[in-house]
């Protein structure tokens, strides 16, 4: 009798755990969640690009200063 109750409790807990995990996974795969994830990735890529461009501009300034190139007459394009 006690074995049956124990197995019933274990089965119930396993079922609750499985349902909880499946609900969480379903929410992660919902279109809204996927869109939010895509937005985060896009923002991270945009931020990375901005940082790379800032580093390029800084390094270009350093090189121009080191080589003595006049920057006043230079028409630089915005790489964005």
Topology:
Elements: H1 2-28, H2 31-67
What does this structure look like?
This protein is mainly alpha-helical and 80 residues long. The chain has one domain. The longest helix is centred in the middle third of the chain and has 37 residues. The termini are far apart. The mean pLDDT is 87. This is Secreted protein. It comes from Kribbella flavida (strain DSM 17836 / JCM 10339 / NBRC 14399). InterPro entries: DUF6167.
How would you briefly describe this protein structure?
This protein has about 80 residues and is mostly helical. It has helices at about 1-30, 30-65.
The major pleated sheet works out as:
none
Q: Calculate Rg over CA atoms.
A: 29 Å
Give the N-terminus to C-terminus distance in angstroms: 73 Å
The tally of strands reads: 0
Order of helices and strands: HH
How many structural domains does the protein architecture include?
A: 1
What's the overall geometry? rod-shaped
Q: Give start-end ranges of low-pLDDT stretches.
A: none
Strand content: under 5%
Q: If you average the pLDDT, what whole number results? A: 87
Number of helices, where a helix is a run of at least 4 consecutive DSSP H or I residues: 2
Which structural category do the helix and sheet elements fall into? mainly alpha
Percent range of helical residues = over 70%
């Amino acid at each position: 009798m006690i074995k049956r109750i124990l197995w019933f409790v274990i089965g119930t807990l396993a079922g609750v755990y499985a349902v909880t995990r499946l609900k969480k996974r379903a929410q992660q795969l919902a279109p809204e969640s996927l869109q939010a994830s895509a937005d985060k990735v896009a923002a991270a890529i945009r931020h990375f690009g901005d940082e790379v461009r800032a580093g390029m501009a800084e390094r270009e300034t350093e090189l121009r200063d080191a080589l003595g190139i006049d920057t006043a007459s230079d028409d630089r394009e915005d790489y964005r």
